[in-house]
Design a protein that fits this description.
three-stranded antiparallel sheet, six-stranded antiparallel sheet, 9 strands, 2 helices, Metal Binding Protein, Guanine Nucleotide Exchange Factor, Chain A, about 150 residues, mainly beta
């Protein structure tokens, strides 16, 4: 286990090198804003506890605690895990906002105002833009600071 395992993500990544490791789909989604097909993606029905991080930079984006089934075929969340890691970019008057990661500028998906709960937002995100870190792997992968989200009270 590394000495910084209890710390959260620090933003150290080489974008050019990381982009070379992406699949064609991951690259097209994150770099060209191409949405993947609904119901044909890795996380649309994932119910495991953990966090979702940017596939390029590793920056924490969303928590399974805020995930819900919007019946769209894509992972949907009511809010970002850390709003400083997510950027909303206006696509035009009728088009809404796209969601991007702050550090890698990866295209993640779109945000809509038809979500449940107090935010009323639905972050509709492409699985190909994220990597899921299960609750049991948080410490080992350097996201130990997020374990408190899943502690039993």
């Amino acid at each position: 286990m590394s000495t910084n395992s209890k710390q959260s993500y620090h933003g150290d990544f080489n974008k050019e090198e990381k982009l070379k490791t992406l699949t064609k789909q991951q690259y097209n989604v994150t770099q060209h804003g191409v949405d993947e097909r609904p119901y044909e993606n890795e996380y649309w029905d994932n119910e495991a506890e953990g966090i979702y991080v940017d596939i390029v930079s590793g920056e924490p984006l969303f928590s399974s605690k805020d995930k819900f089934d919007a019946r769209t075929g894509w992972p949907s969340f009511t809010k970002p895990l850390d709003s400083t890691n997510v950027v909303l970019k206006n696509k035009g008057f009728f088009s809404g906002c796209e969601v991007r990661s702050r550090n890698a500028d990866s295209f993640l998906g779109d945000v809509f105002n038809d979500g449940p709960g107090e935010t009323g937002l639905r972050f509709c995100v492409n699985s190909a833009s994220m990597k899921f870190i299960s609750k049991d792997e948080l410490e080992e992968k350097g996201y130990g600071a997020y374990l408190a989200l899943f502690s039993e009270v």
